[in-house]
Amino acid sequence: EIYIDRSEKGFICFIPQLIAGDDFLTALQLICVPHNKSLDFNFEAYDYSHYEVENPGKVSAAGSLLFEDKLFLQTSVSLENTFISGILQYASNFVKNPEGLVNLSQGFLSPYIVSLDLFASTDFSSLSYNLPYAVVANTEKDGEMLLLSLDGNETSIQVSRLDVTAMGQQLSSSFSADTDKNYKDVFFSANF
């Protein structure tokens, strides 16, 4: 089922449930608002595959596609309480050889949940991105988690925070890498 309705300034598309194989996403909603030289969009979907947790996983994205002299896209993507296994399991329905993704989703990644915000912009010849935070946590073992913050573009990446906590120990690091436009030379620095 798919429902499409006009809104005051654009349209809303709603899919109650999107099924792929044995996997599904729920309450998918896309809102599009066209303007003279741009299109604003907002998308969200929910993952109820892990019914044993209080809140469902949520995937959302929002942004604008600008139609100037050159196309330009700016967007944000958020994951809230989303199991990595759910992402891999759903993605396995769309790849030619899904066994690797299925094995990962049912293996050691199955108890891990992720929340993150990612911001990106591109003119389709260059890209810049910012991940102010990503948290990956083990839902079966307290104190086992990863915290990550990074930003960059097509020729550089700077990880300002990478904290890994496991087995009562913590590793903190930061690093950066830059390359020339031909990707022949890479300059790397790291702190632990």
Q: Topology, please?
A:
Elements: E1 3-6, E2 11-20, E3 23-34, E4 38-47, E5 57-67, E6 71-83, H1 84-91, H2 99-106, E7 112-122, E8 127-138, E9 145-153, E10 156-166, E11 169-179, E12 186-191
Antiparallel strand pairs: 1-2, 2-3, 3-4, 4-5, 5-6, 6-7, 7-8, 8-9, 9-10, 10-11, 11-12
Helix pairs in contact: 1-2
Please provide a written account of the structure.
8% of the residues lie in helices and 62% in strands. The chain is mainly beta and 192 residues long. The chain has a twelve-stranded antiparallel β-sheet with strand order 1-2-3-4-5-6-7-8-9-10-11-12, covered by helices on one side. A hairpin with a 3-residue loop joins β5 (57-67) and β6. The longest helix is centred in the middle third of the chain and has 8 residues, at 84-91.
Please summarize the sheet with the most strands: 12 strands, antiparallel
Spatial arrangement of strands, main beta sheet: 1-2-3-4-5-6-7-8-9-10-11-12
Beta percentage is over 45%
Average pLDDT over all residues = 90
Please give the oligomerization state of what you see.
single chain
Shape: globular
Measure the end-to-end span. 52 Å
Number of helices: 2
Query: Into which percent range does the helicity of residues fall?
Result: under 10%
Number of strands: 12
